[in-house]
Specification:
five-stranded antiparallel beta sheet, 33% helix
């Protein structure tokens, strides 16, 4: 959990920046996040000869262990507009977020997965999401009355294997890797390539009552199509209780309102009547049979807004 944000910014970046920074710090503090701020007087790393302290040294002297380079800080995020300070904190395995603006366009923030460009548009939620991505903490996508939909993590593997052990689950969908290590490697790569790049994908469905992983659901793409696809699976012990409809309805609203999709599809293998019935209940319309790799699927499509379908998500 994020508890501290340390701003290491250089002077001379303008009054507009200072106002935006004050607003951001206030927002962070309102969410219980401790904020520390220091002006980078010179781009010097610790140990270099200088008449003034480098930013990292100043923060260390002012805030003590909060910025100690050799101390574990799993709950701290650094934000800096200095490439020197960025490399310093990165080399010491800190979670660091570069800030790119008009005065540092020539600097390199090599290796940065994420970057701030408009500080006035940054708030607590943006900072927390960036921290979670850097720290490998799953994003919580949405909540329903009974469920939490969040990004999948490797800690979910055992629960997923328990769900997929049921023959009824794999009868109409692809199984997990037989080797757990391969599945773990796949999840790690999926988090980086799908979540990290697109911000969405197939997520874990977790029961709010006890935290149990009860299935998966989300949005993905198939190379053969130019429309995003809804996917879902609920473990056998939780079927026939309305979980799939509850979760998929929320995901469809998220797909429209938060991602901006106008249309979504679902591919259901022939004779998979349970999934077909759910698609019809969600408002999908049958568009006929499509064949992929010699497997016959019913293609369902849904207009997420403004369509003629009376069940279109609004």
């Amino acid at each position: 959990m994020l508890r501290k944000v340390v701003f290491a910014l250089r002077d001379g970046t303008g009054n507009r920046l200072q106002l935006s920074l004050r607003c951001l710090i206030q927002d962070l503090e309102q969410h219980g996040i401790e904020a520390a701020y220091a002006v980078c007087l010179e781009d010097k790393t610790p140990g270099e000869q200088s008449g003034t302290l480098c930013c990292a040294e100043y923060l260390l002297k002012k805030h003590g262990s909060i910025c100690a380079a050799d101390q574990e800080e799993p709950d701290t995020l650094y934000i800096t507009d200095s490439s020197v300070q960025y490399r310093f904190w990165q080399q010491h395995r800190k979670y660091v977020l570069p800030y790119r603006h008009q005065w540092n366009q020539e600097e390199s923030f090599a290796g940065a997965e994420y970057m701030i460009e408009r500080l006035e548009e940054v708030d607590y939620e943006v900072v927390d999401m960036a921290y979670r991505r850097l720290a490998g903490i799953p994003w919580e996508i949405l909540k329903t009355e009974r469920c939490i939909v969040r990004e999948t993590v490797v800690e979910d593997v055992d629960s997923l294997y328990d769900i997929y052990e049921e023959p009824a689950i794999t009868e109409y969908m692809e199984d997990l890797y037989e080797d757990r290590d391969e599945e773990i490697a796949y999840i790690k790569d999926y988090r980086r390539r799908m979540y990290g790049f697109y911000g969405y994908g197939i997520w874990t469905v977790q029961a709010r009552q006890d935290g149990q992983v009860i299935g998966r659901a989300g949005i993905s793409w198939r190379e053969e199509f130019d429309v995003p696809e809804l996917g879902f699976v609920i473990g056998v012990p939780w079927q026939r209780q309305g979980y799939a409809y509850e979760v998929c309805s929320a995901i469809l609203r998220y797909a429209w309102k938060d991602i901006g999709f106008k249309q979504i599809q679902a591919l259901v293998m022939e004779h998979n009547e349970k999934s077909a019935a759910l698609c019809r209940k969600l408002g999908f319309e049958d568009r006929g049979i499509t064949v992929l790799e010699d497997v016959r699927y019913i293609l369902y499509q849904l207009e997420l807004s403004g369509g003629r379908n009376r069940n279109a998500i609004v």
